[in-house]
Amino acid sequence: xxxNAMPPEASGHAASNARVEANGRANAHGRANAHGLxxxxxxxxxxxxxxxxxxxxxxxxxxxxxxRALYGLAERGISTVASEELAAAAGVxxxxxxxxxxxxxxxxxxxxxxxxxxxxxxxxxTLGLTQDWPVVIVGAGxxxxxxxxxxxxVSRGFTISAMLDSDPAIVGSKIARLTVRHVDELEGVxxxxxxxxxxxxxxxxxxxxxxxxxxxxxxxxxxxxAPLVLxxxxxxDVRKVDLSIELQILxxxxxxxxxxxxxxxxxxxxxxxxxxxxxxxxxAxxxxxxAxxxSRPQGTPELAAKG
Length: 307
Fold this sequence. Notes:
Elements lengths: L13 H21 L4 E2 L2 E2 H4 L8 H19 L4 E2 L1 H8 L3 H9 L11 E2 H12 L5 E6 L3 H8 L2 H4 L2 E8 L8 E2 L2 E2 L1 E2 L3 H8 L3 E4 L3 H13 L4 E4 L12 E4 L2 H24 L8 H16 L10 H6 L1
Parallel strand pairs: 5-6, 5-10, 6-9, 10-11, 11-12
Antiparallel strand pairs: 1-2, 3-4, 7-8
Helix pairs in contact: 1-6, 3-4, 3-6, 4-5
């Protein structure tokens, strides 16, 4: 069942980033208390007030990007940030960023910007990262191992509670301080650890069966790395990550750029017999004729280079 989709990777700076992000979360909670946003019966007061409702999906998809940028700013010791600077760090325009953050009830201070620690708290609260989320990984191959060893999950509130596989050679081994259990224990593991999120890192052939078992066990959020579109009932959220698709998209754009280069030279790129190159050649040809020499044909690369 284990997947060989990705070679194992060591996250060299993951521990450092995890410490920074953990400190950022602690600072954000402290700043939130200073702003009067405590917790009511285990929930954030803002959530009780309903401020987290009605956020567009496109905004939700950008919030993790903002959070990553904010952690980077906090790591550099920056306490306040202008919308333009945060937008640049997140790769969006400032108007879109301000609109997204307005859904969180955060408008910044004119002439000052946003409080970084407090904004970390607001985004984390909206994403549900102010509590811990138990996660089970099904598939302990190369990809599953890399995910289990990634240090960034814990700092964001995700705890890898268990790893499961069906390969007798892997079951019982240790990965990231976890003992790999047999997939037959899936339902018991979900119940015992109160698993909220299931990660499928298996080959495509077994992914749907694993998904069905996770859903039957009560898991309603699934991250799917298998190259397969999963069928799930209403009320179950699936996020698909397919690295091969991303590579194919990159290959498409690389091919277009590669094909455009000779075309641009033909249409007048620098040093080529196109429009501007032809103009240079004509001028150079005229100079050569004026000097009493016989001009070469217009557009000759050697002549264009001299001109």
